[in-house]
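new request in #modeling-help
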Amino acid sequence: MKRRPVIAGNWKMYKTQAETSAFFSSFTPLVGAATHCDIVIAPPYTAIAAAVDSARGSKIAISAQDVFWEKEGAFTGEISANMLVEAGCRYVIIGHSERRQYFGEIDETVAKKTKTALGAGLTPIVCVGEMLAQREAGQTETVCRTQFTGGPGALTPEEFSRILIAYEPVWAIGTGKVATPEIAAAAHRFLRQCAESKFSTQAASSLRILYGGSVKPDNIQGLMAQPELDGALVGGASLDAKSFAAIVEGCEKR
Ligand code: PEP
């Protein structure tokens, strides 16, 4: 099964509206000819409108970094899936390790958010991955299985067919310590097995799994040489137009 690669940038809490417009002025021409992968950028909420405006006419899709599971109501500070769609988002990141670590995200809320996002027509990028102590204790597969089962595994087969998963080992996020291509591929293979056991061989083989954790222009080619990797979720290196464009380009040479 040939899976189309995706390169997604997670800007976290970086970039004002003006900085977002400036980024797109540099980035869009650099990737204008790229047809080998889907390109997604997730700015902070306040810069979504600027990003959607700047990306109009290009193939770059805009994502949110989170979503709430209710349609509307007294939920101060939250944003609904329909609001994101209206703002022009096509994707949403759900269950990022920073949400899990600092904001109480759990597998159950990941599943609820994912269902709501799908119901609104968004494509969720659902993140899973182990902490350093868990890897060192030999618990990587247990953690990935638990997060898979409670999150994406709680979807219907039809819902599952419309999500992406990002494997993001927490020890590699923002640390400069990228997983080796072999370590990343082993985790992706394991997650694909989880998808096969829960859903079907077909569902597992069409699932796109992105790797995330210190992806840079100089390591993307090695990672993408692993057929198990279907792209990358990029934090720090997505903030610079040239470096993110180099990652998009590097993903072509698999
Ligand atoms: C991320 O935020 O999802 C991420 C992978 O960050 P970084 O690329 O900076 O490690």
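bot summary: The two ends are 15 Å apart (CA to CA).
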